[in-house]
Design goal:
With about 80 residues, the protein is mostly helical. It has 3 helices and no strands. It starts with a helix and ends with a helix.
Length: about 80
């Protein structure tokens, strides 16, 4: 149970960082902002469908949170460049 809470806490912290990076990119405007906005929406839909499928196949809350953390980490790496 503690693992799920710790994973959720870490996801919240890591997501906050990515939100900040995305906001800076979007605030800069231009083509990059449009691309980032579209990418963000697509990623959220795909992640939600992936989480739903995992739950249907017996996935745990912790496994789903960890998968979201992986996706957030990928975005952090991409946006930090």
């Amino acid at each position: 149970m503690l693992d799920a809470w710790m994973s959720a806490l870490m996801l919240a912290i890591e997501s906050g960082n990515v939100i900040g990076l995305r906001l800076m990119k979007i605030a800069a405007g231009g083509v990059d902002a449009n691309v980032e906005t579209s990418l963000m929406i697509q990623e959220k839909v795909v992640a939600a469908l992936e989480a739903q499928a995992a739950l249907c196949c017996g996935g745990t809350a912790t496994s789903i949170i960890e998968r979201y953390r992986e996706l957030v980490a990928e975005n952090a790496r991409r946006l930090a460049v």
